[in-house]
Every structure is written in C-alpha cells, then in structure tokens.
Amino acid sequence: MLVPCLLAATPWLLSAFRPAGPPPPTLNDARHLLGAHHPAAAMQALDLALRHTPPDADAQTLLRETYAAVCDPATGEPNPRISGPAARIAATLQDALGGGLGSALDYQLLGQFALAGGLATEAVPAFRKAAAMGADPAALQLPFALALLRANDLDALLQTIPANAADPHLGARLLVVRGQAQEALGQDDAARASFEHATSIDPGNVDAFARLGMMELGQSKPAAAAGWLARAEAANPTATPALRLRAEYDFAMRDYAGSDKTYTTLVAQRAAETYDPIPPSLGKARAEIYLGELTQAAATLDAAPLNQRDPHLVFYRALLAFRSGQFRRAGDLAEPLDTSIHDFPPLDLLIGSTLLANGFPATAATRLQAYLAMVPGNPAAQALLNDADDRLAHPNLPMPVPVEHLLEAFGFPPSLAPAAQTAGRL
After folding, report:
1. How far apart are alpha carbons 112 and 126 in whole angstroms?
2. Angle 294-303/280-291 helices, nearest 10 degrees?
3. C-alpha closest to that of 191 among 170, 169, 214, 223
4. Phi, psi (degrees; rounded to nearest 5) at 71
5. Residue 339 DSSP class
6. pLDDT tens readout for residues 304-341
7. Cα–Cα dist 174/165, whole Å
8. What sign does the dihedral 42-45-49-51 (CA atoms) show?
C-alpha cells in the first residue's frame, strides 16, 4: 500500500516545493505607478490589489485619484482604453456593496468605474443612489452627466443635471455635456446657446470652443469654424478637443496632409477612440486614403484599436477599396452596413456609386437619390445620378462608367489613378 499512498501524495509534495508566484500588487504599488504618471498600469495594479484588500478609506482615496488621472483634463471623460480593468474594478466594488450598506462615496466610485469601464447603463443607477445619499455634487455631477449621455438617456440628462454650478469650470463642463445632448436631440440652437454660455463663464473652455467649431464645419461654414479653432488653440493647442477640431478643419479644407499629421498626433497620444466626430485612427486612415497613401491607410486600419468588425472601420475599408478601383469589393463590404449604420450619407453615396460601377443603375439611382436628399450640394453625385437615369432610359449605353466620375463624387484628387482604369473590368 506504500506505493499507491506515495503516488496519491505526489501532487501535494510537488506543490510544497514549487516556487511561489509573485505576490499580488498592493495599494502602495498602484499608488507608486500613479505617482510615476502611469495611470493605465496603476489601474491594472489597483484592480488586482482590490481583490485582496477591502475598499477602505485608503483605497477610496486611491480610487478617486486614479479615476481623475484617467480622465481627459479638457473634457472630464475617462479614456476608453482602460475600460477592461475599470470594468473589473467596478465588479469588485459591486460585490463589496452586495448588502447595499455602502456610503454615498462608495456608490459614486462604483458609478465612476462603471462609466470608465464602458458600462454606462450600470453607472447611472449607482450615480442616482449616490445623489440620493447626498454625494458631493462637485464630484458627482460631471460623471453622472457623462453616464446619462453615453447611455443615450438624453431627456433624463437635461432634467437631472443642472445648467449651472457654483464652480465656473464645473458649470461650463456641465453646459458642454448639455449641449451635446441637445445636439443629439436635434436642438441645434439650444446646443449652440449651451456651448456659448460655457465660453462666457469659463473663457478658457477649449472643449466648448471646439464643439462650436465642429457645428460650423457641419453647416459648411469654414470661416466661422476657423474663428473657433483660433480660440481653441489659443486656450490650449495640445488639448484633445483642439486637436480634433484642427484635424477636421484641415480635412474640410482639403489639407489632407495636415489632417493626417494631427490625427497621427492624437493616435500617438493614445487619445480616446470615440466618435467625436471620428476616432483618431479612422481620421488618420481617411486622410491617408485621400492622400492616395493606400498601403499606409490599410496598415492604419489594421492597427486601429477598435473591433475589426466595427461598422465604421469596415466602411473605411470599403472606401479604401473604392479608392483603389476595387468596386466589387467595395460594394461587398459596404452593402451589409445598412443594418448597423444609419443616417450616414457617405454610406448611401458609396453604395450607390459601387452599384452604378457594377452595372446596377436602378438600385444605384435609389441610393444616390437618398444621398442627394441629405446632401444636395454635390454636383458630382448629381452627375452620377443623371448617368444612372440615362442608363435606365437607354439600356444600350456603353459600359463602363468612367472611373474619374466615380472618384469625383467623393472629392478624391484625380492625381492617383486606381489600379483598374474602368469599373467594368473589376
């Protein structure tokens, strides 16, 4: 019986002599990383430390400092790049509050890390409870407003979050978030008033300047946008909102090299990959497509820190294929996006153009009409629609559609000819 007993004990004996793994990080380890300006690493260490340390007063202080460190100083928004550990910290805090006996600060922290973890719908009730328990409005209101905005609970945001605050900087930030909600609801005049009010009470609010500039670009008023850009850059030229506006302004002015340079800066700074109005990686790829740097654009899309099935990323893959003259591939990529991208005129233009290139004038005409109903000022797109109508009326018109006409509708410079010179060969 001795051998069987020894065999049964072998795993225990081996484990007794196996070298112990490294100890889990402590709160002090996380604090050291935070002090060394490594907030992402601090977040990872804090996540692991909290699994072995109850969230006491010391942990609460570190949680507040860490959350502040991962938020954009110009907007107060947590960077989505740290969403993984933030979501795990939120889960740990939620477990600690399982009995519902936490303080207002406990629920505020839960809401903040749920927000940072991309869990806006879970953050909202935590913030509501914190507010009901008397949490400090100066610490609660901005993340609460951002959670309501991300959860698309826009009416609740306008009803719940005050339009003013004792501190002008906080008040201006709240006004900017209110303006974003109003803009999303189609209340453009109210949004503009909120942004302008923000600049009046906080004259250095670069985010408000940038959002007013974006509104002017959206209304095809580049001269007015240039004025807001100048004010944003005077306030803080390296702030994320100012850089985003600069990149979009340069793109609108067809300075694609300038747009590429600024979006490259945002990518290098690991700026948040949010649609505000476009993730930096996609803005960079878009500029490279327009510059004709197609190989680099493909590499930028491959390296984008987005889900590779993200519909807007797929759209730019389709646009890259289109710019390369691969019209069938462009259509194959673009047409399935109908179910996931809505109210995005460039998608209608892209699908309509590829359908026309591939010999389907009837369906092409429908998509081009939809595009022109939203963007009536594109004569090159109107010319494509006229071409589609002509082909419907005269089925024997020679094919293919000239490539330069297809490219012109997107404003592509004619200097770079695609690999295939005619749509019918693809």
Report:
1. 9
2. 170
3. 214
4. -100, 145
5. G
6. 999 999 999 999 999 999 999 999 999 999 999 999 99
7. 8
8. positive
